[in-house]
Specification:
The complex is a heterodimer of chains A (158) and B (754). Chain A has 158 residues and is of the alpha+beta class. Chain A is 34% helix and 17% strand. In chain A, strands 2-1-5-3-4 form a 5-stranded mixed sheet, with helices on both faces. With 754 residues, chain B is of the alpha+beta class. Chain B has 3 domains: 44-136 and 210-257 and 264-296, Aldehyde Oxidoreductase, domain 3 (Alpha-Beta Complex); 303-454 and 605-752, Aldehyde Oxidoreductase, domain 4, CATH 3.30.365; 458-600, Aldehyde Oxidoreductase, domain 4 (2-Layer Sandwich). Helix content of chain B is 28%, strand content 24%. In chain B, the strands form 6 sheets. Chain B has a 7-stranded mixed sheet, with helices on both faces. In chain B, strands 8-16-15-14-9-28 form a 6-stranded mixed sheet, sandwiched between helices. In chain B, strands 1-27-26-25-17 form a 5-stranded mixed sheet, with helices on both faces. In chain B, strand 11 (223-227), helix 6 and strand 12 (250-254) form a beta-alpha-beta unit. The longest helix of chain B has 28 residues, at 523-550. Classes of the chains: A alpha+beta (158), B alpha+beta (754). The interface between A and B is large, with 58 and 58 residues. The complex binds FE2/S2 (inorganic) cluster (FES) (2 copies).
Amino acid sequence: MPSVLVSTTINGDAVEYACPQDETLLDSLRDRVGLTGVKEGCGTGDCGACSITLDGRLVCSCLVLGVEANGREITTVEGLSDGDKLHPLQEKFIEHAALQCGICTPGFLIAAKALLDRNPNPTVEEIRYGLAGNLCRCTGYDKIVRAVQAAAKQMRKK
Amino acid sequence: MPQDTSYTHQKFNVIGTRPKRPDGIDKVTGRAKFGADTSAPGQLVGLILRSPHAHATIRKIDTSKAERLKGVKAVLTSADLPDLTDGDRAMLDILENCMARGRALYDGHAVAAVAAIDAQTAKKALKLIKVDYKVLPHVTDVDEAIKPGAPIIQDWVFTAGVEPKPKRPSNISQRTEFGHGDVEAGFAEADVIVERSYKTEQTHQGYIEPHACLASVRPDGSGELWVTTQGHFTFRNICSSLLGMDVAKLKVTASEIGGGFGGKTHVWMEPVALALSRKANRPVKLVMSRDEVFRATGPTCSTSVDVKIGAKKDGTITAATAELRYQNGAFPNIWGMLGAMTSFACYDLKNVKSIGYDILCNRPKVAAYRAPSAPMAAFGVESTMDLVAAEIGMDPVDFRIKNAAKEGTLASYGPTYGPIGIGPTLEAVKNHPHMRARLGKNQGRGMACGFWFNFGGQTCTDLNIGIDGTVTLTVGTVDVGGSRASLSLIAAEELGIPYDQVITNIADTASLGFNDMTEGSRGTFSSGMAAIFAARNAIEVLRKRAAQMWEIPVEAVVWEKGEAKAMGKKHGNLPQLSLKEIAAKAPNTGGPIAGHSEVVADNAGVSFASHICDVEVDPETGATKVIRYTVIQDAGKAIHPDYVEGQFQGGAVQGIGWALNEEYIYGEDGRLQNAGFLDYRMPVCSDIPFIDTQILEIPNPNHPYGVRGVGETSIVPPLAAIGNAVSNAVGVRLSHVPMSPPRILKALVEASGS
Ligand code: FES
Ligand code: FES
């Protein structure tokens, strides 16, 4: 299958890559653009490790084709911090020990940001359902939920 | 979260604080490199072809078409992996599990592999490999596997541990027995005897990161392996021995690891990746799909367990027995033995006997899973404990307190306990507000106890002091969940300097001596112990250097709060020398300052936990939700309490998944039917409440700071705690895990019908 040239914006920068038509966006991001912060846990849309936003919408990049990113805007975990300033979610995840192994963390951060963009003051239940598409096997979710609560609180202060 | 430190008299400066972990930034920005996150120039993509049959003879593998496909650089079968194990059956088993040798033993067993220039080509090549199978009868159920006439999985396996030695091969690889006293006499004394059988289904560790590695073998026979593993030194030894490489010529680097829980203590495809690289003379990256992870790696045993406990009316247990049948997959191991050892470890019993059977089935080779074998035994024992308590009309917590093991108790598996925490965890349960909270309709509360041995093992650590006084601690145990922070804390404590001044690194196999794996809850325990000794050795050097700088005898120098202090009338007025000042002069006082330590960190200190759980059962559907959960566990000493709590919470939630949902489902055809996260459903955030924790600290006398391993015990009580809670909620006793909605509903219907 011939490769297709894709022009897209990733974390604010214009990026071009060529990929086969049946390649997932996850593979394009990891293998062609070098954004290995986007993780693969399942490849079937069930774990959320590959979460990104596409034109502001939370998606599993393993369920999107690389060619579909043409002309669109992507945010990955690599684009969350503002220069050397970590995003409040990133800070609170470290502070609250919301990661053990850390493989699920990029996906949780992206999903949590999408949640807080929509709902700056979520209840515990809203956080739990908002993050229900992301699997974490290490933490039992306790400290993740607390970190998201803390980040939401800090972000509301600004 | 509460932390009870009243049992210890040691005072600490930084131990027990909760600083940020040093690898945190890399892990929240996507910079951390996990198994699949690295590449090498000219690398090929490796893929593995797997058997679709549960049991089959492989008559022939025709790889010729695949080899001719453009872009294919190597095709591999077991013919490329000659047996170099020299009669070591356990090693041959590892090799055979990596690549079938004439027979496929389970659905998902590797039969061939390819390396090609890209994923598309590699996938095409797999389809071109023709395998001629002769399907054989199979067995996947642990009780079926020991019935007469069941297909024999390994014809070289004769049941060990029985006299006389059997003449015919069997699926029971070994029988083991533990205990003491006279159980028959004990049962005769009992007022009440409860006897019951239990089953648990097979579950997977469920780490989110699939197995991944990058192998590169050079034409001169040396090589490198980058891999997600719990133990790169062990991987190096196994891979080099299976492939006939010199140990020193294979350098293994552990990537960041995306969860292991025991599943990454075994090699699965790393020798295959190295062999492909050797054949193709190019680096090969091999990453498993989730489907492969489920079908061919990891899972823990399915089990079938019979428990019998007798007690007097006053609550004294007079005798207890258990017979435990553990399904090991296609290769023999010691899982049933561990089940038998752990089953009654919480209690002080006069008469006790447990018999473990290890049983082969056409399922993947079973791997360790967090406190391996203990949760299933605890499910049977702790469920029966509640039944006995009910029969004699005693509160289940009081019943356990009355029989709890204590210092001096002869454990059912042999040793005599030192100071242990089972009693205190039970007292803490009794006093916990959770026990007094009101329950609503269809809700019930249960509790259960758990035990795990913990493991110490070989450990080797370097501590180097830089010219500016910052400290590099180099360890060989991978960081599975924040241990870098804990180890930096330990070195900082010992040297008397701030946490930030110590950076902990994980060395590759070429840079440090051998280290056992991060398993058995040993990471922080044993590397921590080695770090303490390395720091103490470095302090010796620091004292010498200070003495040299002052030109006084070293005996007159002590180390206090990060500084050298001159002692005695003669020198006492000398101003202290800080670590930084001594480090700055190192080039002129004898060169680099370092401390090293090689230890076998024995006596890891057994650990106990008691859990409390509230559930709500929907009587219409059988669906069960955990609505409140409390973990109380003895940590010995919590180095970094956040990560101790994290271990408690993570283990509890894995246990909740196991208790309620997770299970390997095999079809009649012996194929795994739910090899994906959609159908093998692990708990998600909305399934689970906050998990409350309470850390107790009953110091381990064998560790300078009193540390015990903390990583595993938390998965032991949940199956039984939830079973007991369900029973209290709806009045039916579930004896089959997972207690999925259909199983609960069936039990409810049966109970209402009778
Ligand atoms: S990798 Fe995309 S959801 Fe799991
Ligand atoms: S921290 Fe390991 S999977 Fe979430």
